[in-house]
Amino acid sequence: MWLVVSAVFFTGMTYLIKALRSYPAPMQACVSQVASLCVMIPVIARTRGRSLILHGAWIQFGRSASAALGVILAYFAVQRLPLSDANALSFTRALWMVPLAALVLRDHVARGNWIALAVGFLGAMLIVRPSGATEIGWAHLAGLASAILLALSVTGIKLLTRQNSLATIMTWSAILGVVMTAPFAIGVWRWPTVQDSLLLALLGLLSVFTTASYIHGMSLGAAATLAPVDYVRLPSAR
User: Fold this and answer.
1) Calpha distance 218→232 (Å, rounded)
2) In whole angstroms, what is the distance from residue 101 CA to residue 95 CA?
3) Which pLDDT tens digit goes with each residue over 140-167?
4) Residues 6 or more apart in contact with residue 146 via CB below 8 angstroms
5) Which residues contact 81 (CB under 8 A, 6 or more apart)?
6) Do 205 and 35 touch, CB atoms closer than 8 A?
7) Of the four, 19, 27, 158, 189, which is 20 to 30 A from 73 by CA?
8) Is residue 215 a contact partner of residue 166, using CB atoms and an 8 Å limit?
């Protein structure tokens, strides 16, 4: 259920990213992270700092690094590619998650899971129908690299949920997300109009809800089993 909610929020984010494509991807990613941090500050205060107690700091650092770069590349791909191409590349994330779950998390991946994932991916490609007329370029490579990096990030989330609460993971994700995206955003920053500021703020809030619901959903089951749920985005993926 929570992964479905996350997919719905992510779809809204996709359209906003496309609509705000005049603002560089690092800037959009940084705004999303700042929004997350603003939401988590009251949580830190309410828990009297307990949400800052983190187990597995290096895992969180690596997860945040892969997530920050993955998000920037994902935003770049959505901005530069037809949505059909960008979505097709984003669906490869599930393909990377299953072997990572088997190798890193030691999840048991039954043959049926592999078959279901392969069939689901082929079905996704038939529905999304990525454009064959678009020349393969940096944006396509960015989309593929993003899928790999975000799959690594999800694997890190699964490791962290074994010893940390959702609040702790979200808090440190927000803090490190701002720190890691800010250097990229500063170099390309441009001040938005009032209307675009509101849309960027909405993008940031959707990012918070997407991340929170996704992390909570992934904490409830095996990554290999939950990975194909990402295909619920198909009705709005074209």
Assistant:
1) 15
2) 11
3) 889 889 988 988 988 888 889 888 988 8
4) 70, 71, 73, 74, 77, 89, 90
5) 89, 134, 139, 140, 143
6) yes
7) 158
8) yes
Q: Which amino acid is located at 235 in the chain?
A: P
Spatial contact of 149 and 29, defined as CB atoms under 8 Å apart: no
In degrees rounded to 5, what are phi and psi of residue 181? -95, -25
> What type of residue is 227?
A
By three-state DSSP, how is residue 105 classified? coil
- Per-residue pLDDT tens for 205-238? 888 888 888 777 777 666 666 666 666 665 555 5
CB 75 within 8 A of CB 214: no
Q: Are 73 and 57 in contact (CB under 8 A)?
A: no
pTM: 0.83
End-to-end CA distance of the chain: 23
Rounded distance, CA 76 to CA 18, Å?
Answer: 9
Q: What is the biggest distance separating any 2 CA atoms in the chain, rounded to whole angstroms?
A: 55
Query: Residue 232: which of 96, 74, 97, 91 has the closest Cα?
Result: 91
